TrEMBL record:
SMART domains: Arg_tRNA_synt_N, DALR_1. This is arginine--tRNA ligase. It comes from Streptomyces qaidamensis. Its EC number is 6.1.1.19. The keyword Ligase applies. Residues 233-347 form the DALR anticodon binding domain. GO terms for biological process: arginyl-tRNA aminoacylation. GO terms for cellular component: cytoplasm.
Amino acid sequence: MTPAELSRTVLHAVRRAVDAGELSVTVPERAVVAPPGPGGCGDYATNIALQLSRAAGRPPRDVAEILRARLLGEQRFTDVVVTGPGFLNLSLRGTASAGLVEEILRRGRRYGHATTGFSGTAVRLRCPAEVRAVVVADAVARVLRSQGDFVRVECEGRPAPEWQSVLGADVTARGPRVADRYVTVRPVPAPGDPLPLGRDAGRWALLHPAAHDRPRIPGDHLVQRESNPLFRVRYAHARTRALLRNAADLGFHPEPGPVSEAEALFAALGDHPRVLAATATHHTPDRLARHLVTVADAAMPLLPAVLPLGEEKPSAAHRARLALAEAAGTVLAGGLSLLGIDAPDHL
């Protein structure tokens, strides 16, 4: 079961509890479902009970217990546990991993994006005419649009033409003039000129640090070694593409299925929609950049086991690992695209 399907299942439980008179709330449009945090258990967790408790006029754990009883009736769950102040922890039957990979491969680089086009709020995004602020505003606008928001970007001053021609930062004012939300992006300015780094490394240098941290210019963003997070992300992506080419030469193709010893990678991939939503909400492209490093680092241990060795014949396990590797590469490519950074197939 995919996170999107889980969200619908949780909302269906809420709706049934409302219809039965157990809860008096408006059923929300979305339930956030993500891998459990510290103190949690199972495959996924949701904070829907905390979200509804005030409207229900009941403690979150009471709401959680009502929903737990409903969810336990679903055949797809082996257990539902309430932890902390009212988190619902969901343990799935054995096909969760394959379902997640299927969803990623079906949606491609748009995995984690809003599924109904532009349906969110109108956002007016402002930034000063400083190179880091302009690049951050451009990345924030990309992520907001991925979540269905209408965005108009305005620069308080005249940006240098090279910021667009070299770094690809488009802050051309367009979109609705009247907004539901007004956001100002004002990160710590860059201490040097990122233009010599080029588009990809220059944008990463400005986006990877948190807004309150000073970026390193020039730093080691062009160095092709493991100490460079951008290299690790792009190298992991390129490796997944190479594996797909090599597998095709061997006559087999990806097929989603269970993969053992890849819990960290499944957790990181499953967390991607939540990270995109949080990046959009808090206007923090550094959050997405760090998440991509997490995905890449979790994917690398899997990759050597994707192809059969020697005279070994491709098996269902190889096809499942190949599908998981393709899903990881897809998430890396989609995330880099939202940051305005290329994901080359060869590196």
